[in-house]
Specification:
Blueprint (H helix, E strand, L loop, with lengths): L3 E3 L5 E3 L4 H28 L4 H6 L1 H19 L3 H4 L4 H10 L2 H24 L1 H7 L16 H19 L5 H27 L9 H21 L1 H11 L5 H4 L6 H28 L6 H24 L1 H16 L5 H19 L6 H19 L27 H17 L3 H4 L7
Antiparallel strand pairs: 1-2
């Protein structure tokens, strides 16, 4: 029988290792990622113009991928429910046990999802083949006389795998209700920002059908990203950090309005000016008027206020979620606009993922798909002007390689090393106890 441990919000979860092992592993993997990507790949491979080093750097990244996906879950005793993924064995057991309409509803959901994925894969085969990283020639199979055979076989295998193995059904109702609320809020927030920046023209060529297809594609990509980041790092960190003592868990109700106001003001007076100065430095003073700074502050205030609101509800949960979200965000260096957006998104997803009711990776993929597609439509193209966000990230995609690019990744690397050392000794947060039977 797998031992158990109490996670950050007080839920009991299967876990074979100690809290300390979980925290050190999560921060250690992050540190290794930054060492491989920046001092090694960028410093030696890109700045040193050494193609062999750039290629060799991919092998330790593959090793970390194998560790995250295959080794670590078995080492810690993670279950499909812990990782937020589907469990086909549990799905078939549930189908056998259910009776009447409840069984029909579940089977109908599985079949509908499988059929939709199959039809979308076949109908958009060139894009599907590119997403699946098939050879370039495979994109033309749909036009060949007997090309429908491999196309249908691949689409069928993909649809069955997603419908039975990738999607978790036991908590999909509360998870997707939360996902819809988060997606709607982020959609409105991004749309309002784009509208203010570019006016009604931003939606003039908005193709709803194309946006929907892009959102579905981003859902698959988002699912993969969230499996590597939220599912892994949020799982390790929530198991690594003990729940806060009852007296320290939340801020008293009487003090919460003050905390929320301070959080909003701090964000408006720090993040907004920093972002405005970055725009001014990149595009010149004429493209960064004081009115832009004022609007940045207006949009930054609710972000800080919301962070403070959830911090007041559960301090430790919010701090751990922010740490997990920052790991996801900082991987997107050196597109710093994307770093800000993905850090916020990663924090939201890590907060949701701590609660078993919302621990559903397909729901997180839905949020990622809606936001990724929307944000790309509004801020990715040249029409976004001074607020254009580059989606090309990592050391391989630095447009103007200079030594100065290493400054922020190196600071991040030092920060994660410091956190590893700090939490390895901080028993009040991590605790010294191992998992218990």
């Amino acid at each position: 029988m797998t031992p158990s441990i109490i996670n950050t919000i007080g839920e009991l979860e299967p876990e074979r290792c100690s809290r300390r092992a979980n925290v050190i592993e999560a921060l250690g993997v992050t540190t290794a990622l930054f060492v491989i990507m920046w001092p090694f790949c960028y410093g030696w491979g890109v700045l040193g113009d050494n193609a062999a080093v750039r290629q060799v750097a991919q092998w330790p990244l593959v090793a970390l991928f194998v560790w995250v996906v295959f080794v670590s879950p078995r080492l810690h005793g993670d279950t499909a429910e812990s990782l937020g993924v589907g469990n086909p064995r549990e799905l078939w057991r549930t189908i056998r046990e259910r009776r009447g309409f409840r069984r029909v509803r579940l089977v109908g959901a599985v079949v509908t999802i499988a059929c939709v994925i199959f039809l979308l894969t076949v109908a958009n085969w060139p894009e599907s083949a590119r997403m699946l990283r098939l050879p370039v020639a495979a994109r033309q199979w749909i036009l060949a006389p007997h090309g429908w055979v491999p196309v249908c076989a691949i689409a069928g295998a993909l649809s069955v795998f997603v419908a039975t193995c990738a999607i978790r059904y036991d908590n999909y109702a509360p998870a997707f209700r939360a996902a819809l609320c988060v997606s709607a809020g982020l959609f409105v927030f991004a749309g309002a920002g784009a509208m203010l920046h570019r006016g009604p023209a931003v939606f003039a060529n908005f193709d709803a059908a194309r946006w929907g297809l892009d959102a579905i594609a981003y859902m698959f990509w988002g699912y993969a990203q969230q499996f590597l980041f939220t599912s892994y790092f949020a799982t390790r960190l929530r198991k690594g950090f003990a729940p806060a003592p009852a007296a320290e868990k939340s801020v008293p109700l009487a003090l919460r309005p003050r905390f929320v106001a301070i959080g909003g003001l701090l964000t408006a007076t720090t993040i907004a000016p920093a972002f405005w100065l970055a725009v001014r430095n990149l595009y010149g003073a004429n493209h960064a008027p004081l009115a832009m700074l004022a609007w940045f502050a207006v949009f930054a205030f609710p972000i800080g206020a919301l962070w403070a609101h959830f911090y007041c509800r559960d301090r430790r949960r919010m701090l751990v979620a922010t740490l997990a979200g920052s790991i996801f965000g900082l991987i997107h260096i050196d597109s710093y606009g994307l770093v800000l957006v993905t850090t916020g998104l990663g924090t939201i997803l890590a907060w949701l993922f701590m609660d078993a009711r919302y621990r559903n990776l397909s729901a997180l993929g839905f949020i990622h798909g809606v936001l990724g597609s929307t944000f790309g439509k509004l801020f990715k193209g040249a029409g976004a002007g001074t607020l254009r966000v580059d989606y090309r990230v990592g050391p391989w995609n630095v447009e103007e390689p200079t030594f100065a690019v290493l400054v922020i990744p190196t600071l991040c690397l030092c920060g994660f090393l410091a956190l590893t050392m700090y939490f390895s000794r901080r028993e009040a947060w991590v605790g010294s106890e191992a998992a218990t039977p």
